[in-house]
Amino acid sequence: MLKNQEKIEDNKIQLEVEVAAPDVDTALANAYRKVVKKVNLPGFRKGKVPRKVLESHFGPEILHEDALEELVPPAYEQALEEAGIDPINQPEFELVQVEEGKPLLFNAVVEVLPEVELGEDEGLEVEQEEVEVDDLQVDHHLYMLREQNARLVPREEEPAKDGDLVTIDFKGFVDGEPFEGGEAEDYSLELGSHSFVPGFEEQLVGVKPGEEKEVVVKFPEDYRNEDLAGKEATFQVKMKQIKEKQLPDLDDDFVKEVSEFETLDEMKTDLKEKMLKNAEEQSKTKLEESLIEKITDASEVKLPEVLVERQIDRMMSDMENYLRQQGLGLDQFLELSGKTREELREQNRPEAEKRTKANLVLDAIAKKEGFTVDDSELDNKIAEIAEAYNDQPERIKDIIDKQGRLPSIREEIRIRKAIDLLVEKASITMVKPEHKKAGTVEEEQKEGQKEEQKEETGPNKADNEAVKDETTEGEKNIENEDR
Questions:
Q1: Distance (Å, rounded) from C-alpha 252 to C-alpha 254?
Q2: Rounded to an integer, what distance in angstroms lies between the CA atom of residue 68 and that of residue 30?
């Protein structure tokens, strides 16, 4: 039972716990029956050493470990329940008294969620973009679909042009010396993809199959390889093959071939509806993220290091899974990026601290409002998950239960209520989305390729890393699983 609880520092609490003397005697007797089976003493058969002889020879402490294993866990759990606290880390135990005929006394120092000083959450002012999907956006998606189904037709005589897929051999030199990672054979490259050092692809436009070309570029000043950063490099390039993309005609026949629709108009209508729904979800997500950021910035809380470290662990795990999907291990990525695992963890720390604080603030809002989750709400959420997987709710619930994830889903629903409350109380101003200068679908596609390249992660461009215009955006994990 809990004798006393005391806040000793920040978010740490010391629990003084007592277990009744009869329970201690029973546990010591059980421990004796277990230990005596393993003891050999001259003059006694194995397992037949009397308890007083055993304790006299080895000391009463020989029984303490097994007795404490029996007594402490349930007593600790009962003390937590009586104290009404939920620890966020393993406790530190201090044994005060364990002796036959007397109560067991021990202290447990536990770390709990810190107190949050919530900022004002009434009438938070935010902007939300109005949702628009125009014909150019639909056409862009259709263009991408044609790109995915394009035929690659070899060209023997005509020179390379932007958009062609070329096969090249190259060897790079800096200050007249070849450098590591600057050489490849039969390398495939799409001209205009902006995946190499700036200026490299542009200089291959106009080169015919079989011709050689000297390409001179300058590595960016912030290039990840410090040995190459800001330096001029010369590449000897041989054009081996040129293939031209031939896009299929955008007509009903193409639509039937790549989709379940019969006509182009049907596909456009369906695509526009899906894009509109996706845009609405994105607009809502941005609004919620803005509100969470505002209330988090306005609130005060001392972050427990254990929670920050756990968040970093999750981010590292997410990144490792992402890299694995790209066919690259974390150790390989670290080698390519020139970082250690600890450096990468520290790089993720600011974002981990931001997420940890946001989660604590949302939890505090949910506690302040008294939000709970009943079984019907949990069942409704399970039904949504089952529908998404086209499965039966009972089976999905059984799987989640066996995985031990039902409590986390309850918590997700509870935190969702806190987010919905922020939206309900917010002062929202609808704004028109920013419009870029209108252009053709092809121009939009090229611009989109450039933007995608800026955000592309290192693992997506792992071939010949030394000559590629690397970014490290992939190291920023924007998934916020905890919300």
A1: 5
A2: 11
According to DSSP H, which parts of 259-374 are helical? 264-297, 305-325, 330-337, 341-369
- List pLDDT tens digits, range 238-261: 999 999 989 999 999 999 999 999
Q: How far apart are the first and last CA of the chain?
A: 36
- Cβ-contact 312, 448 below 8 angstroms: no
Asked if the structure places residue 142 within a domain, the reply is no
What predicted TM-score, i.e. pTM, was given to this entire model? 0.71
- Pair type for strands 427-431 and 125-129: parallel
Residue 471 has pLDDT above 50, yes or no: no
Q: Which of 428, 117, 472 has the alpha carbon at shortest distance from 284?
A: 428
3 state SS of 204: helix
Nearest to 96 by CA among 108, 84, 79: 108
Q: How far is CA 375 from the centre of its chain?
A: 29
Which residues form the domain of 419?
A: 125-133+256-475
Question: Is residue 239 domain-shared with residue 265, that is, in the same domain?
Answer: no
Sign of the Cα torsion 155, 160, 166, 171 reads positive
